[in-house]
Each structure stands twice: as structure tokens, then as C-alpha cells.
Amino acid sequence: MRVGVASDHRGTHLREKVIEVLHARGHEVEDAGVDGSESVDYPDFAAIVARKVSSGQLDRGVLICGTGIGMAIAANKFDGVRAAPCNDEVTAEISRRHNDLNVLCLSADLLSPRVVERMVELWLDTEFEGGRHLRRIEKIRALEAEERACDKP
């Protein structure tokens, strides 16, 4: 699987852990940074990964900022991206099973490297259930298409 990983300045330590977990499991990793502690704007780094997930260049993405919320908001601006902040193993697993989440957003401020390792493993290993959940994903896709079709002033 091809997985893009990016963080802002607050998430560099967890980004390194995520990359380690992905490599250990044999995944191809695209590291979109950031390195160092100089303040950067998370939308810039979310866009790098989300754009490639949207276009099919990457299968999935992992984004890390202080809370995971900002990264999720930015990533969800791209067609076909389903990004959400997950803060424990349960939400990481359910995000895949029910929502077919393709961009996992993590909190550098709230999560330990050990918990992140387990969350990423569950997120990678959990399959989308389909069924009634597929119907809901299709409705989200229809909303995306409707928004693209709207004439804007």
C-alpha cells in the first residue's frame, strides 16, 4: 500500500513513529514532512497528502497536527478524501470499518507513540464493511459531485 505521511511542527515526533510502523509492515511511504520545530501552516502539508490520495497516487494518508482537527478539515476539501481525527483504537478501527477512512488524522498533543502505533496498525488492518455503510459513502460522493456542479457567483 502507498501511504503518504505529513505533519506540522507539532507532530514531527509522531510522524517518525508512523513512518517506522508503516515501513515495518512493508508499506511504501511518501514522507511529506515537516522536519524541525519551526512553525508551519498545517493546511499546506495536509494538501500535499490529500491531493495525492484524491488523485489515486496514494492509497491512504496519515496527517498529524496538534489535535488532528485542522488537518482533517483541510484534507476533506479534496474529492474522495475521507479524513477524520481519531483519538483511540476504537475510533481508528471504526473509521475504517464504517467510514472507509482513507486519511487518518492524529493529535500530537493527546496521543503517545505507543497508542499511535496500535491505532495505525488497526487502521491498516481493518477492512471496510460495505453494506449499509457503502450506501452512506455513496451519498457523500453524491454531495461532492453536487457541490462541483453548482454554479458559484
TrEMBL record:
PANTHER family in UniProt: DNA DAMAGE-REPAIR_TOLERATION PROTEIN DRT102, RIBOSE-5-PHOSPHATE ISOMERASE B
Its GO biological process terms? D-allose catabolic process; pentose-phosphate shunt, non-oxidative branch
Residue ranges annotated as coiled coil are none
Q: What is this protein called?
A: Sugar phosphate isomerase YwlF
Q: Which InterPro entries match?
A: RpiB, RpiB_LacA_LacB, RpiB_LacA_LacB_sf
The entry sums up its family as follows: Belongs to the LacAB/RpiB family.
Name the Enzyme Commission number(s) assigned to this protein.
5.3.1.-
Q: Which GO terms describe its molecular function?
A: ribose-5-phosphate isomerase activity
List UniProt keywords, sorted A-Z. Answer: Isomerase
Q: Where is the active site?
A: C65 (proton acceptor), H98 (proton donor)
Gene, per the UniProt record: ywlF
